[in-house]
Amino acid sequence: DPAKIKESEFATPGLTQDGDHTYTLRVVAKMWKFDVGSKEPQPTIKIPAGSRLKIIATSLDVTHGFYVEQHDVNVMLLPGQISQVEVTFNKPGVFHIICHEYCGPGHQAMVAAIEVNEGN
Fold it and tell me: Is 104 left (phi over 0), alpha (psi -120 to 50) or beta?
């Protein structure tokens, strides 16, 4: 229920480390931003190469898309529904996240990135 998002696991979106090279990223999509707990309008999530990332995401308002380039992550985020996907990032680089579902006049600003760095 989008009205109760502040009472759910999405009350504090962002990246948490669960173990050695395992992370969980909680994302709230909303017009026109991916909220990952950062003040940046187009945030960058940083993880080391070889990390397994569990992405748990939802939408606060309308249907959004969540696509991570060069990886098998392409999900629809529906209001009140939770989407979850796991992916391993083996090679360093910057991988853009985009909303691939038109969500209104600020749609083109819905971008973020995952920066994968060598080492820890």
Answer: left
pTM strictly above 0.70: yes
Buried b (16+ CB within 10 A) or exposed e, 17-26: eeeebebbbb
Helix H or strand E encompassing 48? strand 44-48
Burial call 50-81: b when 16+ CB within 10 Å, e when fewer = bbbbebbbbbbebebbbebeebebebebbbee
Q: What are phi and psi of 119, to 5 degrees?
A: 75, -155
Domains contained in the chain, CATH given: 2-117 (2.60.40.420)
Assigned token pair, 78: 């529906």
Start-to-end C-alpha separation, the chain? 37
How confident is the model over 27-43, as pLDDT tens digits? 999 999 999 999 998 99
